[in-house]
Amino acid sequence: MAQTWKPEYKGRVNVHAFDDWCGGSTAELRRNLHYPLYPHVRTTVQKLALSLQRTNYGLRIFGYLHPFADGEFVFAISSGDNSELWLSTDDSPLNLNLVAYVGKSGTEWTAPGEFDKYASQTSRPVRLSAQIRYFFEVIHKQNYNGIDHVEVAWQLRDKDVKFMVIQSEHISLYFDEFPLLIGDVDHVPQTAASHQNTKQSIAAVDMLRESTRDTLYNGETCPSVLLRFHCVLPDCTYKPSYTIKGYPLARYQGLQFVHMSYVYPNDYTRLTHMETESSCFYPKNIKTYLQIETPESLERNKIASREEFNAIKRDNTRPLTRLHKRDMHNRRPLGETDNAPLQHKDINFDTGATWRQTVQISPLDIQSQRTDAIDLRCNCTGNLLLPSSDVMPVVMAFMEKLNEKHNGYLQFALLKVVNVVKRVDKANGSRYLLELVVTNANGEQLRLSHYVYVPLKKPEAVPCNPVGLRWNPEATVHFIVPVKNQARWVHMLIADMERLYKETGDTNFNLIITDYNSSDMDVKKALEKSSLPRYDYVKLSGNFERSAGLQTGIDLIKDDHSIVFLCDLHIYFPTSMIDTIRKHCVEGYMTFAPIVMRLNCGATPWDANGYWEVNGFGLLGIYKSDLIAVGGMNTREYKDRWGGEDWELLDRILKSGLEVDRIYLRNFYHHFHSKRGMWTQ
Fold this sequence. Notes:
Layout: E1 13-19, H1 26-30, E2 41-45, E3 49-50, E4 57-65, E5 71-79, E6 83-88, E7 96-102, E8 126-128, E9 134-142, E10 150-156, E11 164-165, E12 171-172, H2 224-230, E13 235-236, E14 262-264, E15 291-292, H3 295-315, H4 322-329, E16 359-360, E17 384-385, H5 388-404, E18 413-423, E19 429-439, E20 445-455, E21 465-466, E22 477-483, H6 487-504, E23 509-515, H7 523-529, E24 535-539, H8 546-556, E25 563-566, E26 571-572, H9 577-584, E27 590-592, E28 595-599, E29 610-612, E30 620-623, H10 624-629, H11 645-655, E31 659-661, E32 664-670
Parallel strand pairs: 13-21, 14-17, 22-23, 22-25, 23-24, 27-31, 28-32
Antiparallel strand pairs: 1-2, 1-4, 3-10, 4-9, 4-12, 5-8, 5-10, 6-7, 6-9, 10-11, 14-18, 15-16, 18-19, 19-20, 25-30, 26-32, 28-29
Family: Belongs to the chondroitin N-acetylgalactosaminyltransferase family.
Membrane topology: Single-pass type II membrane protein
Function: Transfers N-acetylgalactosamine (GalNAc) from UDP-GalNAc to N-acetylglucosamine-beta-benzyl with a beta-1,4-linkage to form N,N'-diacetyllactosediamine, GalNAc-beta-1,4-GlcNAc structures in N-linked glycans and probably O-linked glycans.
């Protein structure tokens, strides 16, 4: 519905600018997660011709046109990169139609005032009335180079000789936004121009393909009480050799003692779409994987193949059927026709090419070349993968023990191995998180997520129950986020948390926002209006301090036996995030430091271009009791700065004897953002 128009709106139109977003197409602007509600800048302009003298931004210009006469008008648009002109049939934003545009791919552009470069730049004649105001909208995207500009012009058909830029006397505001905060968005028009193709999944990105891992939280949890009561596995002591309680670490040395876990099956966290031949997977010269065959090597291979064939032939003692004999009788030697042997003749397209050159290769096992050490040089590798030969013996031994406790009857049948996470301990044994889907005697499907331990001393993969290493499926997870003057990101965080609640129905989580007196929005009011089942809000004064803000949130938590997740504001969470944090945090034993993927400029969770943040530990799950034991956040040293406080906390966690579980986490993203204006003091 159109807003109430006022005469004082004449002479200007609304402009919304979206900064720090790469790409030159309007489709890329629409993928911006702040678009169209939360621009970086809200302002006005007095004519439909402007240049911001900057790069990597997008514009949404909207308001009303006031024709100076009755008649048929032709519109034209020009811009540095792509742009679109939409015009309504009246004053309603609901009746918009695309009438002219510059390009679709992001590579098209025009010079300022060049209205005839592309046929799409000019509209068909549109009949307008001088008695009516018409809602319009201009979408413009500027890339990283070239002259940024966008202009809209018109001409009265058969009257005007040339296009004229639309001036102030023929435009007016849609709404006066001057008194509003960034968080006030109810007035922003929602139109066909602003909501085209906002989410596009690129099938070529393997990590974006659907996986049962991502929806395991929907299954019914196999009751842990049942497993404890029946003592499915024999108990065993769990004391990994890699914990370093009391070890005198130097500052930030703890990073060297964190190792990656292995996963099964392939979760496709390797960023294959971001790799080049020079990536850390491959040698400098990838041709080393090829062995050029020579006549001598070919002859050796023929001899070896002939010997292998003869051996197979000797072993094959089955008599041939009559049909098989007739097939073999009718066969011709390779290259022979009915009349004469087939003659080969080279056609020399390129005398320098060897058209019959063949090569030898061996199956390449990249995973066998990797170790569980964190390699800070590699940011596209993804999780270490386990072979099925490692996993299935453990799984089947577990299932056998499970059914033995039911008098040997097949009470539970394995339906699917959804996820296995293995932490290798070369001295004592390995820990496995088994996540299975099983069926019971009634055919019901149940989810089973259970830690088992396989000591090295056992001759076979016989799992036991690691005493004390049991995750709590009902633990409350508290997400703590300190903020200051980041309205558009705070709204996005709240919306993302609402999505988790809607898709999982999980009420055992809490969003805690510690707010350093934000002036661009009412954070508390936004939380009150949300659908979140639980939240806490505290207002702080002074300059932004991440460590102090996190500690304030920690102090709000009354239950020491709940989980704290130290969080960042610019995060997109997988739907399974709450459950994943619970599974990888064990009170008194283990913390969780998932690796997040940093999205590139212009990338979204639905195309996932970016890199893994392998050296960051600021996103951390830990039981509050364990965090208290290690001393909490270091608010004394990290007072007026942030960066490094995560590594310092990691040092203390490791020295306390806790494990740090570390995996690359699917669909876990850090949004691209600039630091321009961040945490305005």
